[in-house]
Amino acid sequence: xxxxxxxxxxxxxxxxIRAQGAGGQNVNKVSSAVHLRFDVAASALPAELKQRIxxxxxxxxxxxxxxLIKAQRYRTQQANRxxxxxxxxxxxxxxxxxxxxxxxxxxxxxxRERRLQAKRLRGAVKALxxxxxx
Length: 134
Fold this sequence. Notes:
By secondary structure, this protein is of the alpha+beta class. It has a domain at 4-96: Double Stranded RNA Binding Domain (2-Layer Sandwich), CATH 3.30.160.20. The chain is 42% helix and 13% strand. It has four helices and three strands; from the N terminus they run H-E-E-H-E-H-H.
């Protein structure tokens, strides 16, 4: 039995790139940032989980069905690689959690009465703004 974490790590394509932003003399020479690309459709994940991942409203999931993660938080490539894989696992776990249906509730009698009382008071204030009566 292959765990989901091992499966994700095996199927993810990781490319080292140069990190953005300010740095020292080293920043222009070392590729410490990481691009992680994970093809959801081609993965060995269950079909239902694939659909849930693709249905997420997440900017990291492309219209082509790929998950793109850029990790440049740390100074070393290995730390950024671990970070990118952890973020991918987190995204998959988020998609795997079932969505609980919302239970409809009704307002209490007291809350309805408070709302109506507030409306009456507001209406009275607005009525005072009108033309004076004879």
